[in-house]
Amino acid sequence: MDTVTVFDFKTGQIDRRETLSFNEQETNKSHLFVDEGLKNYVPVNHFWDQSEPRLFVCEAVQETPRSQPQSANGQPQDGRAGPAADVLILSFFISEEHGFLLHESFPRPATSHSLLGMEVPYYYFTRKPEEADREDEVEPGCHHIPQMVSRRPLRDFVGLEDCDKATRDAMLHFSFFVTIGDMDEAFKSIKLIKSEAVWENMARMCVKTQRLDVAKVCLGNMGHARGARALREAEQEPELEARVAVLATQLGMLEDAEQLYRKCKRHDLLNKFYQAAGRWQEALQVAEHHDRVHLRSTYHRYAGHLEASADCSRALSYYEKSDTHRFEVPRMLSEDLPSLELYVNKMKDKTLWRWWAQYLESQGEMDAALHYYELARDHFSLVRIHCFQGNVQKAAQIANETGNLAASYHLARQYESQEEVGQAVHFYTRAQAFKNAIRLCKENGLDDQLMNLALLSSPEDMIEAARYYEEKGVQMDRAVMLYHKAGHFSKALELAFATQQFVALQLIAEDLDETSDPALLARCSDFFIEHSQYERAVELLLAARKYQEALQLCLGQNMSITEEMAEKMTVAKDSSDLPEESRRELLEQIADCCMRQGSYHLATKKYTQAGNKLKAMRALLKSGDTEKITFFASVSRQKEIYIMAANYLQSLDWRKEPEIMKNIIGFYTKGRALDLLAGFYDACAQVEIDEYQNYDKAHGALTEAYKCLAKAKAKSPLDQETRLAQLQSRMALVKRFIQARRTYTEDPKESIKQCELLLEEPDLDSTIRIGDVYGFLVEHYVRKEEYQTAYRFLEEMRRRLPLANMSYYVSPQAVDAVHRGLGLPLPRTVPEQVRHNSMEDARELDEEVVEEADDDP
Q: How many Cβ atoms sit within 10 Å of the Cβ of residue 452?
């Protein structure tokens, strides 16, 4: 089915019968990419190409005349500023898929009357009658054809007018694909064509599409070496737009380049672009507002441009803005000296004054030069000219007042040439040219000044001066001092020993350290030993890595080893100074010495470093530092150390400190010393009986003791069996007494009977306090008011415990009741002993620790 398509210039839209209308109400509306400027034109002629059905040309007349017809990109399409015209020639590609596509637009040639038609590769025009006979004035690019007709090649066919059909078809494909923006297909269409115009057009399209890869091929086919090089150098720019702008610049598309630089905000490149284009005001504006980094350089280049344009007054102003006027303005005005002098005096700049003074000096005007040197405060030049004029005193006055180094040096050279050695040395010293001053002192025998100068100078000069004193053989102390100050310790010590300079030796030895020569250190240490300065001798021996000698000296002179000294004696584990065995022996000797002097913590540290943890623990035990002993035992993880720590903790008041009791049980358990742990539980049971009368807890402690002893690996099984039997017997007695007291409320008679039977046991005293049993009986009979029986048990208790205080076992109220009941006088009371709280809670906290022994093999 055929489709009728209408293109409206005023709306820039296409109307297809099936899809859209001009009022833009339909959804299937197709838009044509047309410049806004084409909306003012009205078509008057149109023609189809006879051989290319896609190509269509139209002649459009402007409704309101304009100053300059514009193409779709805002410029005359023929690439030049044509004369004013109100008629445009428009060519289109038409396809079913893409619709109307503007291919080319340009003003109708001034010599042509109207469009006649087109046939690739030409547009044909009728010529104006008055132009028919003036063939020499034909429009550039148009060819004269007789019979009032002229022609103009299509844009892409410039240079290919006489091509064959294959090339013409390839170019048409190229034009079509460029128009729709398919650069890949366009490139494939013309890759075999050699026309520079075609490749240039392709490169221009690469600017629009930003296809730099294709642009490189185009530039190569164009033979545009400069553009190819510029594009390759632009690859270092990170922004794609900046690289494309370089391509646009090389192709003469300056407005596109400007827009691209602005788009990527590369104001530095935009500044350079404006400068290269001679658009200085725009370059200055960009530099002042956006590219201030290059502001001074922009001012300087603009000043150079103004200077080249002979606008010196404005150039001078911009040189000042660029802060290069101090050397650029004198250069620029070098041919106009009066103006230059006025400028120098006006600016009052030291650099300019100095430059003008140097110029005057070169012209022999010394007085005027002095004046400007003084304004510039160039003291060196003042001294130099005064010396040249023979006014040395004035030069010396300036050098002394200003202290200028260069002026002092120049004046010193002047005095040396006049053989005034004293003044020369003085000014060489002020100029800090000590080497020259030392040279003069040596040449003229000024030994006193030589010493001071050498001390102020470099180490090399000190050594030279020391050699001078040494060669003369006098004032050897100065030679020693200079060698010492220069860092030449070996030579200083050698000379000090040779000349018996003992005071100097002490000063030198203070600066010796481990980096010094070991032989020198040993020699100095011998010197200090001879003069009984043992501490200093030890320090030097340690610096010389003679650790054994240092330790022996400490032992021989009964010197206390400080922590710092011990650390210096300690050799690193991976050191090559001593074998590992010798290193450990040395550490143990240091630790032994610390033990003898009572530095137990230091001894512990050294024993530990030597790997002897047992000795380290013994040293720590002597220190009595419970916290460190506990910590050391915990981290050492050795059976013997656990036992030693537990034994030490038993010597403390573990009854008042639950944490100590916990550590004792834990250490014995970790040390597998179950027999010792059993003994500790036995002691705990006795404490519960003696101090707290808590037989229940005592029975529990005896039970734990029995368990531990039963699991212990005893050396003598017979002794172990004996101890187990004793523990079992004691446990039985305690349990009988506990049972008797528990059953008292239910069966008092049986309870009292059991207590009376306990009193008949032969070894009761070793387990149960007899007084507790008697006290229980007395309390019972007092409650029964059987005072006579109660009194009998009291007397029996006094007989069996003659030294005991009755109030420990029987309450004073019960005793008083007995005496009152029998009519006996009351006894004298004794204050009751203050009792401590039981520590059974701590033992209970550690029952889990004790149970570890049950799980160990």
A: 13
Q: For residue 158, which phi and psi values (nearest 5 degrees)?
A: -65, 125
**Residue 191 neighbours by CB under 8 Å, 6+ apart:** none
- Segments in 264-391 forming alpha helices (H): 267-276, 280-289, 295-308, 312-321, 325-332, 337-347, 350-362, 366-375, 379-388
Q: Helix H segments across 473-579?
A: 476-485, 489-498, 502-510, 518-530, 534-543, 547-556, 563-569
Which two tokens mark 167? 């090339």
Q: Please indicate, yes or no, whether the overall pTM of this predicted structure exceeds 0.70.
A: no
325 DSSP β-pair partners: none
CA distance 117 to 122: 9
Helix/strand/coil percentages in the chain, nearest 5? 65, 10, 30
Average pLDDT over residues 730-740: 79
> Which of the 8 DSSP states describes residue 652?
S
How many beta carbons lie within 10 A of that of residue 342, not counting itself? 12
Residue whose tokens read 């209970």:
844
Residue 343 φ then ψ, to 5°: -65, -45
Q: How many helices, marked H, and strands, marked E, lie in the chain?
A: 45, 11
Do 251 and 197 touch, CB atoms closer than 8 A? Answer: no
At 14, phi and psi to the nearest 5?
A: -110, 135
Which residue type occupies 213? D
- pLDDT above 70 covers a percentage of the chain that reads 74
- Three-state SS for 113? strand
* Nearest one of 289, 290, 234, 283 to 267, comparing CA atoms: 290
Distance from C-alpha of 770 to C-alpha of 20, rounded to nearest angstrom = 126
What distance in Å separates the CA atoms of residue 767 and residue 781, rounded to the nearest whole number? 25
Interatomic CA distance for residues 647 and 260, integer angstroms: 90
Would you say 654 and 660 are in contact if contact means Cβ atoms under 8 Å apart? yes
Residue 80 has pLDDT above 60, yes or no: no
Do residues 665 and 848 touch, judged by C-beta distance below 8 A? no
CB 827 within 8 A of CB 819: yes
pLDDT value at 587 more than 70: yes
pLDDT at residue 368 is higher than 60: yes
Residues 341, 365: Cα–Cα separation, whole Å: 14
For residues 149 and 116, give the distance between their C-alpha atoms in angstroms, rounded to a whole number: 8
In 3-state terms, what secondary structure has residue 3? coil
Structure tokens at 163: 């091509």
- Residue 589's nearest CA partner among 622, 612, 573 is 612
- Angstrom distances, CA of residue 696 to CA of 656, 693, 708, 824: 20, 9, 19, 37
> CA-CA distance, 742 to 256, in Å (whole number)?
113
Residue where the block lists tokens 């400027």: 37
Those residues whose C-beta lies under 8 Å from the C-beta of residue 741, and which sit 6 or more positions away, are: 695, 751, 776
Per the structure block, which two tokens stand in for 3? Answer: 């489709």
Residue 633 and residue 599: Cα distance in Å, rounded? 19
Of the candidates 605, 636, 638, 642, the residue with the CA atom closest to the CA atom of residue 620: 605
- Long-range contact set of residues 315-324: C-beta below 8 Å, sequence gap at least 24: 316/343, 321/296, 322/296, 322/297, 323/296, 324/296, 324/300
To 5 degrees, how large is the angle CA 214–CA 219–CA 221? 95
Residue 803 CB partners (closer than 8 Å, separation 6+): none
Q: 5 forms bridges with which residues in the sheet?
A: 16
Span 180-198, pLDDT tens digits: 777 777 777 766 666 677 7
- CA–CA distance from 95 to each of 20, 100, 826 (Å)? 17, 7, 141
Sign of CA dihedral 823, 827, 831, 837: negative
> Residue 691 CB: number of other CB atoms within 10 A?
15
